[in-house]
UniProtKB/TrEMBL annotation:
Gene3D superfamilies: Aldolase class I, Nucleoside Triphosphate Pyrophosphohydrolase
Catalytic activity: 8-oxo-GTP + H2O = 8-oxo-GMP + diphosphate + H(+); 8-oxo-dGTP + H2O = 8-oxo-dGMP + diphosphate + H(+)
Protein known as: 8-oxo-dGTP diphosphatase
Native species: Halomonas piscis
Domain Nudix hydrolase, chain residue ranges per copy: 7-134
Keyword Magnesium found: yes
Amino acid sequence: MKAMVKRRVHVAAAAIISDDKQKVLIARRPSSFDQGGLWEFPGGKLAPYETGLEGLKRELHEELGVEITRAQPLIRVHHEYPDKHILLDVWQVHAFSGEPFGREGQAVRWVPMEELSGYPFPAANLPILRAVMLPAEYLITAEEEDEAVFGERLTRALEEDGVRLVQLRAKSLDGEQYLARARRALALCREYGARLLLNGDPALLEQVDADGIHLTSERLMQLDRRPIPAGKWLGASTHNAEQLEKAAALGCDLVTLSPLAPTPSHPDAVLMGWHDFQQHVEHAGMPVFALGGMTRQHANRARAVGAQGIASIRDFWR
Ligand SMILES: Nc1nc2c([nH]c(=O)n2[C@H]2C[C@H](O)[C@@H](COP(=O)(O)OP(=O)(O)OP(=O)(O)O)O2)c(=O)[nH]1
Ligand SMILES: [Mg+2]
């Protein structure tokens, strides 16, 4: 039997963010279209000669009557539909001119980030929703003996650096000490509207109602199903293709991928480099944070190779 070769479709789509950064623009696909009636990020198929950004500019002009003035890659998602292989090349649009409206008669709506998951999207869109909801910076807390110093440093990062995603990593604390710190960290994160993931046993969420769990790569590889409910965020540390595949199979919402560059916390690690990193990210199918020697100065570089952004201890812990 002859193998069927699926059509490959490259689609550019936009997560257009409102000026106050609280809302994103979505549109409803007309019911006569493929995936009709579902909501989508505006965009469409590239012409053969177009780059992603060129195609996106044309599509947003055609569909919404707006001109993009500032955009940045957000995530690339490969998805197998029954009849075709689709690459969704998604850009975050930070600035545009014109007032968007449905030029093709489609419904268009500004939706608060936290309401996004209430809208029906095509199956390929799950990783995009995660990427839209997550920031570009992921703080990992340092080992810290003194609770007061811990509180001051976390507060500084939330307030001055605007950190909105935090992983509580504290290998030197015992169970009770970790829980006490987790409760304090959660209270601080709530004050600033930041999400807190606990690095530890998924059962911790029964004792502290944090936003999710971050799995070590070791814990990740031991699991055979997602250990927490869908409403919670599941992160994992990864270092290679095998771990990334496992994270995808478990339904992780985000991963860190390391190590990119030398870092004092892991002095003997074998470095990955941007080329390998990019290849891994392309097929990860979820937001990936570059980790290992990363600072916010690497954020644009990380985004350019497909990452959500950077994760760091040192750059935020001062
Ligand atoms: N624009 C967009 N398309 C998506 C999303 N999710 C998703 O699976 N798709 C699929 C649906 C379609 O098969 C394909 C996009 O094609 P399209 O119908 O928007 O293409 P187009 O604007 O160039 O329109 P057309 O003239 O070719 O009909 O990608 C999404 O969030 N935005
Ligand atoms: Mg379209």
